[in-house]
């Protein structure tokens, strides 16, 4: 589907299904509220699916969208750009953290080249959807044209459609792109109007001098382009990245199919803001997997009204935090399927 038809397919959560889930939660053999955040999560997932209980999130699929960034030339990351392509090869070989975590959680890993600068060999399971070999330097000119941003969003929509057609009942966001925490920070500032200082973090781990410079780069980019949050495609094009745009499409694609999408770290959180700007009801499909150590992630999740399931101080990306949260999401749903009621188990109520 196109961006427009996907946005048009996104509907609000189903209130009767949510009421049924709340009512069932109240009858299960446990004190009300004793499962904490899992209870409202189960209610939200019933509302998304449109019936109670919603299906277990199995099988689950994480898509790792990879791209490069012209702003890397401004020395906002200590890592060489070719690490993006090298890590793509590592994902495909099964040797990255996300692969190990996915084996642990039972998720399938899909890798998508949406904008890697280094040419990658076709085959070995890679989805080739390269829109251009890295963005332009957004300190100089818009990172992307509107057409390029749209092509990346629609590539993400297609990946979501393909994974669901292949049987996925839950989608998870992943990203890889050296320097991509800089456009993530600018996107979050653009959509939330938070200050550059509040949204900029240390990414892969940068020293104080590089951090101060990174804040200045984010501020300069916002000042130069004045992105309009009411025009999400324009924001993605001027101050975004190809994996950010593709992730926005991926999240919209999940929401349009009423499939939950577990949001990973700061890159996915910035894309989630774009998705919500295209279609506010898309938030109903989003589950915040974890609280990334990047400050912008917390700003973005608060803006979306989402509270993260895990808080482990992680800041890797790749989908690693989303994959770790998958068993928690599965447990929240399994309660609705398997836990006895006070009546059925003969347990006295207070
Ligand atoms: O997921 C996160 O919150 C996260 C936080 C910090 C870094 N990363 C990953 O690190 C890379 C970007 O870091 P940087 O410092 O090069 O902008 C990119 O590949 C991201 O997946 C990811
Ligand atoms: C080694 C490495 C692995 C990563 N995974 C996600 N971002 C990354 C950045 C680096 C540098």
TrEMBL record:
Keywords: Cobalamin biosynthesis, Glycosyltransferase, Transferase. The keyword Iron does not apply. Its EC number is 2.4.2.21. It comes from the Bacteria. Pathway: Nucleoside biosynthesis; alpha-ribazole biosynthesis; alpha-ribazole from 5,6-dimethylbenzimidazole: step 1/2. It catalyses: 5,6-dimethylbenzimidazole + nicotinate beta-D-ribonucleotide = alpha-ribazole 5'-phosphate + nicotinate + H(+). The active site is at 318 (proton acceptor). SUPFAM superfamilies: Nicotinate mononucleotide:5,6-dimethylbenzimidazole phosphoribosyltransferase (CobT). InterPro entries: Nict_dMeBzImd_PRibTrfase (IPR003200), Nict_dMeBzImd_PRibTrfase_bact (IPR017846), Nict_dMeBzImd_PRibTrfase_N (IPR023195), Nict_dMeBzImd_PRibTrfase_sf (IPR036087). One of its GO terms (molecular function) is nicotinate-nucleotide-dimethylbenzimidazole phosphoribosyltransferase activity. HAMAP family: CobT. Belongs to the CobT family. Catalyzes the synthesis of alpha-ribazole-5'-phosphate from nicotinate mononucleotide (NAMN) and 5,6-dimethylbenzimidazole (DMB). This is Nicotinate-nucleotide--dimethylbenzimidazole phosphoribosyltransferase. It comes from Paractinoplanes globisporus.
